[in-house]
Design a protein that fits this description.
CATH topology of the domain at 87-277: Rossmann fold
Order of helices and strands: HEEHHEHEHEEEEHEHEHEE
CATH architecture of the domain at 87-277: 3-Layer(aba) Sandwich
Shape: globular
Radius of gyration: 21 Å
Low-confidence stretches: 1-12
Strand content: 15-25%
Mean pLDDT: 85
Strand order of the largest sheet: 5-4-3-9-10-12-11
Helix content: 40-55%
Distance between the termini: 53 Å
CATH superfamily of the domain at 87-277: Vaccinia Virus protein VP39
Structural class: alpha/beta
Number of helices: 8
Number of strands: 12
Largest sheet: 7 strands, mixed
CATH class of the domain at 87-277: Alpha Beta
């Protein structure tokens, strides 16, 4: 809270130098309540997260059970399960748009929330591959699969079209690892392509769900022909904090030029149908 007050004061000082006393006072009236509210929100989430830990470090969401027994899962993330906001838009979109009768390739399994929502609705749940590059999340992803009697395959790899291996940058938080955003810790993981997975499994039509922290743009550019021939439903999250806005626009245009029909978008998560394959 003291840090938030200091930050507010520093911002207000900039306004004082630029706009004088009145500018300083106006800014102060805006900044301090905002910073205090952020501090209050942080404290609330930390408290809720700690309570979840004391109650067994597990929580139910959408009737599914999740363990948080991994250092990468912060108390703030745990609190989102309590409030029901963890990947709320993504949960709704896969529930509404992923067909029950098609195999699923999912990139970026994280701790398994979207994976379990998808797998529960599939008529052949064994036809579901969940790809996760972060080695620190493989254990909790597998734990949450077993807790919900799900039948997806966990594959340790990164979706990448540039070679047999890729450098993946670890992050202390479950939501922070990426092949696009460098950190102080890097590991080498196997690389796999959508085309290779479809060929190996002998699938003709699939749903593709990807949340791969910026790498989705390269995938779209280099595998758009594979997507056009084999992907019936595409759900993709883009990342403005990592990717350039113009590159994101280019990727969206590439999808639409390939004949995919836009269905809806929720906070940078886009849903497209390939009407020729439905």
């Amino acid at each position: 809270m003291l840090t938030n007050i200091r930050t507010a004061s520093g911002n207000c000082w900039k306004y004082f130098k630029r706009e004088g006393v009145w500018g300083f006072l106006v800014r102060l009236a805006k900044e301090v309540p905002y910073r205090l509210s952020r501090g209050k929100s942080w404290f609330r989430n930390q408290l809720v997260g700690r309570c979840i830990e004391l109650l067994g470090n597990k929580w139910k969401l959408d009737g599914l059970t999740y363990s948080f027994d991994a250092p990468a899962i912060s108390r703030t993330v745990k609190s989102r399960f309590f409030w029901g906001t963890y990947e709320d838009k993504e949960r709704r979109l896969v529930e509404e748009h992923v067909p029950a009768d098609l195999p699923v390739i999912e990139g970026g399994g994280s701790i398994g929330v979207i994976s379990n929502v998808i797998n529960r609705k599939l008529t052949k749940p064994e036809d579901h591959i969940v790809i996760e590059a972060n080695p620190d999340l493989l254990g909790i992803l597998e734990t949450n699969r077993k807790l919900n009697n799900a039948n997806y395959e966990v594959m340790h790899a990164a979706l990448d079209q540039n070679g047999p291996e890729v450098t993946f940058y670890l992050h202390k938080l479950s939501v922070g690892g990426s092949a696009q955003r460098a950190t102080g810790t890097a590991v080498t993981v196997p690389a796999i392509t959508i085309g290779k997975l479809i060929e190996e499994r002998g699938w003709n039509k699939v749903s593709l769900v990807i949340d791969i922290e910026g790498a989705e743009l390269d995938l779209i550019e280099k595998e758009i022909d594979i997507l056009k021939r084999h992907v019936s439903v595409l759900i993709v999250e883009v990342h403005h904090m990592i990717s350039d806005a113009e590159d994101i626009k280019k990727a969206i245009k590439t999808i639409e030029d390939a004949g995919f029909t836009f269905k809806e978008e929720q906070t940078d998560v886009y849903v497209y149908y390939n009407e020729d394959l439905l």
